[in-house]
Amino acid sequence: MNKKIVFTLLFASVCSLSACGKDDIGSLDDSVIINEGSLSDRAEQDTSAESLQTTAGGYVVTEVPTTTTTVTTATDELGNIIAETVPVETPETPASETPAETVPETPAPSVIDYTPSTAAVGTPASTAVLPADAPTPYDYNYGPAPTVYNIPGIKYIDNVLIANKSYSLPADFYPDLDQTCLSQFYKLQNDAAAVGLNIYLSSGFRSYDTQDYIYNDYVARDGQEKADTYSARPGHSEHQSGLAIDVNQIDDTFIGTPEAIWLEAHCYEYGFILRYPQAKQDITGYKYESWHIRYVGTDMSYKIHSKAVEMGDPYLTLEEYFGIDSYYH
Ligand SMILES: [Zn+2]
Fold it and tell me: How far is CA 89 from CA 43, 66, 68, 149, in A?
């Protein structure tokens, strides 16, 4: 953070830590602090205006100098410190320029550490190529790949985060709902509404602690064996990744509704996949969830859809596509 502090002092900024949002971060839990720390390290390597904006725990942190005065300090030949205010420079300070520079130029504010080269680990992915009808960045339905977090303990295959019974997420991983995922869901929602269907978000991000509470509640009610068929153990929930959304009524009454049928047929057009399709419980580890969709970006969702068509299996799972398993080891 030293560079930032120096930068601030050079412009005699009176930007307090609180105004910069540091106090806000400090009030969050440890998991967010850890994430923020890694972000700061990265920011120091990049002195561009964009580096001044970071995201921690879903909170966009923009450091905006709030100075309106400029004080220049000089030292004479005898070493005496001469502090003086130079009126001429006051209107010429970066005060009027800096705010403009802090406006993010990127349309992807949720990106924390998009490093595909370091995230491509794991078993080889399918060789399916992107179908010709896949959307391009200029198409309405195009949705880029979601945030890739360069955090130890997270399993990626082809930049797709894997969270299932075999691969867990760190307890302090608290990304909040991915903003690209959310904006793509809004497109889906709008297009569904255009044909008279009401698809709404019922559940998005869930923290490790929340999942811990929910899961243990189910275990107390139904026992662990049954609870494991429909609820993830803490750290294993896809909802903790910030890339999963439950829509409408979160139970089997959603099955077969016009909304469920439309969702299953069209969600890939927006970058989603139906994560726990019917008849695949032995593979995904979970019973059929007609309401749970997972964001992977349109490039990947079209590839998976294309592979499913090629295989004649409309319920191709992420596990099958990547050749991985899902059970508690
Ligand atoms: Zn869900």
Answer: 29, 16, 11, 43
Q: Is the pLDDT of residue 72 over 90?
A: no
Q: Could you give all domains of the chain from N- to C-terminal order, each with its CATH number?
A: 2-102 (no CATH), 116-322 (3.30.1380.10)
Q: How far apart are CA 203 and CA 263, in angstroms?
A: 16
Active site residues: 289
183 three-state secondary structure: helix
Q: Is the pTM of this model over 0.85?
A: no
- Residue 140's Cβ-count burial label (10 Å; 0-12, 13-18, 19+) is exposed
How many whole angstroms from 129 Cα to the centroid of ligand 1?
Answer: 28
Listed residues: CB within 5 A of ion ligand 1: 246, 292
CA distances from 12 to 65, 68, 90, 168, 277 (A): 9, 9, 11, 46, 58
Answer yes or no: is pLDDT of 264 > 70: yes
In the reported structure, the alpha carbon of residue 226 is separated from the centroid of ligand 1 by a whole-number distance in angstroms of: 17
Higher pLDDT, 52 or 220: 220
